[in-house]
């Protein structure tokens, strides 16, 4: 077994997984997340804001120390949508390289296709044998959403530029969002799904598996949890109707109502309405095209894919 660490730095959060692996399975040692909003304003300015960069590098230094304390042998740091879009991404990656200098880790700004493949590998690494293939894995992030279809291998994948942070900043400014704001966001969401569907045949999905914080938070709402419980969320299979009801509730809730929910991370309060709008639209579209009546949620995602690749 090799002790490895995977870091996934997205538009909204930065996450760390320290695990022991033989290349086929993972045993978690540490799995943690901080919301740093690296993508703050990137959709408008094209640059990572100085304060967002400072927040993220500060957490990266803490993660590097945790890796040292845990006796990690190898670290892989993957940055996704916000870093792909930013004109000053090189400045950010230099800061991260400094934080992980002890491990010689050079941060990778991966393409959308690479992100999709890593997410697929992580999600399907723990898929139950009874889960019907092919799997349609949807990774709903802060700046992008990946659609990946496959069984043991990826057959088709597409990364699209919709995410809970990007669409909140672009469209959803009222509390709660107005119908006009929701309609404007839906134009972008449906265009992105059309773009994905041109490459990824949604009608072939044997199972729909949703990943990342928006999806797991919506699942916590649907399950009626009073606090965030990853063991209950992971592998939860919900009806399409139940998912839609939870999405509707979160879309139309006020900020105060969302913040009062026991399972809601404080850093997700402002963007969960947008995430719910994206997820509701995707679930409806996939259900209509594939005939699927249920949706699966996975707590295993790109982090697991990154870690497995280190063995």
What does this structure look like?
With 311 residues, the protein is of the alpha/beta class. Helices cover 44% and strands 21% of the residues. The protein has helices spanning 42-45, 50-70, 81-85, 89-99, 112-124, 164-170, 179-197, 213-222, 230-233, 240-252, 255-259, 272-290, 302-308, and strands at residues 2-9, 13-21, 26-35, 74-79, 108-109, 135-140, 145-150, 154-160, 207-211, 237-239, 294-297. A hairpin with a 3-residue loop joins β1 and β2. The radius of gyration is 18 Å and the shape is globular. The termini are close together.
Provide a count of the helices. Answer: 13
Give the number of DSSP strands: 11
Order of helices and strands: EEEHHEHHEHEEEHHEHHEHHHEH
- pLDDT < 50 stretches: none
Strand adjacency order, main sheet: 8-7-6-9-11-10
Which structural class fits the helix and strand makeup? Answer: alpha/beta
Strand fraction band? 15-25%
CA-atom Rg in angstroms = 18 Å
Biggest sheet character: 6 strands, mixed
Straight-line N-to-C gap:
8 Å
- What general outline do the C-alpha atoms trace? globular
Mean pLDDT: 93
Q: How helical, in percent, are the residues? A: 40-55%
What features would you highlight for this structure?
311 residues; alpha/beta; five-stranded mixed beta sheet; 13 helices; globular
What is the strand and helix layout of this fold?
Blueprint: E1 2-9, E2 13-21, E3 26-35, H1 42-45, H2 50-70, E4 74-79, H3 81-85, H4 89-99, E5 108-109, H5 112-124, E6 135-140, E7 145-150, E8 154-160, H6 164-170, H7 179-197, E9 207-211, H8 213-222, H9 230-233, E10 237-239, H10 240-252, H11 255-259, H12 272-290, E11 294-297, H13 302-308
Parallel strand pairs: 1-4, 4-5, 6-9, 9-11
Antiparallel strand pairs: 1-2, 2-3, 6-7, 7-8, 10-11
Helix pairs in contact: 2-4, 5-13, 6-12, 7-12, 8-10, 8-12, 10-12
């Amino acid at each position: 077994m090799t002790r490895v660490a995977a870091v996934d730095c997205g538009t909204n959060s930065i996450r760390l997984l320290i695990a022991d692996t033989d290349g086929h399975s993972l045993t978690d040692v540490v799995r943690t997340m901080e919301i740093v909003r690296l993508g703050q304003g990137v959709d408008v300015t094209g640059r990572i804001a100085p304060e967002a960069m400072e927040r993220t590098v500060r957490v990266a230094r803490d993660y590097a120390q945790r890796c040292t304390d845990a006796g990690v042998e190898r670290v892989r740091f993957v940055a996704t949508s916000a870093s792909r879009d930013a004109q000053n991404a090189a400045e950010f990656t230099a800061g991260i390289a400094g934080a992980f200098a002890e491990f010689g880790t050079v941060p990778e700004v991966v393409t959308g296709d690479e992100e999709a493949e890593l997410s697929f590998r992580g999600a399907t690494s723990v898929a139950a044998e009874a889960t019907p293939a092919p799997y349609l894995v949807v990774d709903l992030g802060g700046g992008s959403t990946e659609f990946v279809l496959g069984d043991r291998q990826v057959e088709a994948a597409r990364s699209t530029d919709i995410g809970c942070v990007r669409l909140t900043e672009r469209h959803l400014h009222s509390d709660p969002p107005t119908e006009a704001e929701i309609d404007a966001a839906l134009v972008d969401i449906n265009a992105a799904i059309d773009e994905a569907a041109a490459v990824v045949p949604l009608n072939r999905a044997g199972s729909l598996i949703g990943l990342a914080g928006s999806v797991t938070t919506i699942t916590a709402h649907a399950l009626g949890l009073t606090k965030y419980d990853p063991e209950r969320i992971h592998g939860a299979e919900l009806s399409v109707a139940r998912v839609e009801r939870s999405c509707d509730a979160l879309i139309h809730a006020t900020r105060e109502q969302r913040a009062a929910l026991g399972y809601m991370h404080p850093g997700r309060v402002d963007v969960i309405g947008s995430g719910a709008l994206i997820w509701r639209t995707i679930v409806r579209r996939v259900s209509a095209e594939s005939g699927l009546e249920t949706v699966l949620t996975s707590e295993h995602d790109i982090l697991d894919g990154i870690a497995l690749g280190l063995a």
